[in-house]
Amino acid sequence: MKWGENGPPRRDPYSSRGVSPNDQIARLMRLLDWSLSFGRVWGIQVRIHFLFFAFILYLLVTGDSLLWTVKVMSVLFISVLLHEFGHCIGCRWMKGKADRVLLWPLGGLASTSPPRTPAAHFVTTASGPLVNLILLVAAYATLWFTVEADMPVGWNPFNPWAGYVASDWLQIVGLVFIVNYLLLLLNLALAFYPFDGGRLFQVVLWLKIGYYASLYWSARIGLWASIAVGVFGFLSGQRMLFYIALFGLFECYRRLQALRAEAMMSDGHYAVQSEPSIRAPREGRRAAKEAKARKKQAVDRAEIDRILAKVSEQGLQSLTKKEQKLLKQDTERLRGH
Q1: Is 0.70 surpassed by the pTM of this model?
Q2: Which of 168, 189, 210 is the last residue in one of the domains?
């Protein structure tokens, strides 16, 4: 997610205070700036949100084992940080800009600006989950070649601990596998913003319907997907999943508002329906389809003229079966008119 991507405030003709709904959302998003800087790594500023510290304190106070909580949070912190660095490195590899990472209780947010191409956005997005994949494979391979008994971890995401290990360092390796395995599944399964699954879905749509249309429809579909996940999390008692879905719902709505603000008319009023930039890909496909139909009609007309000239010179018996079929179809078409 990018910070400050909505531009300067614009006056909403439907608000007596001159503040658009998009501006109101932007004010709430400034909460993300309530963070502390932890320096720079490879030119990337690392910031940690104050809620992240509150979340860690809550887990330390309520957890059954202080040592185990410290282990889990340490592995989670490093894994999420490396995941976000993966996004930044992927963006830079595609000649884009990436200069900031924010960590907070619902994960991490990388400030990236890749070139506006599907390939650049795909690489930038996929580089984060790729880091988790590399870490979980390395951890699993380490356990595979180290543990003589049964593997202490498994591929069931609802019960990843399949055994017990007494060694502290093997517990850490097992945690690296489990944390990165769950991060990978979570990021790819949640097909709404700001998670990687939603961004990859937008890239796929981009290839089919164009950039602005893909932003619009991925956000619209993401709204319903986040609602479905939120309902599931609420009914199943998964509070963290419910909060994640709530954040996704907010982010998808914010993106829709940003798109509408970007499509404002020159006089400062909102467009009545979908923005021209969103309709453009559909109109382009319609025009291309009509042009293709006209071209085919011209080719068919030229072929019919050739067949008629052949009949005039050599008679009907000179026609092939294919030519006879084309001439019959053209005759029936003319009779139908």
Answers
A1: no
A2: 189
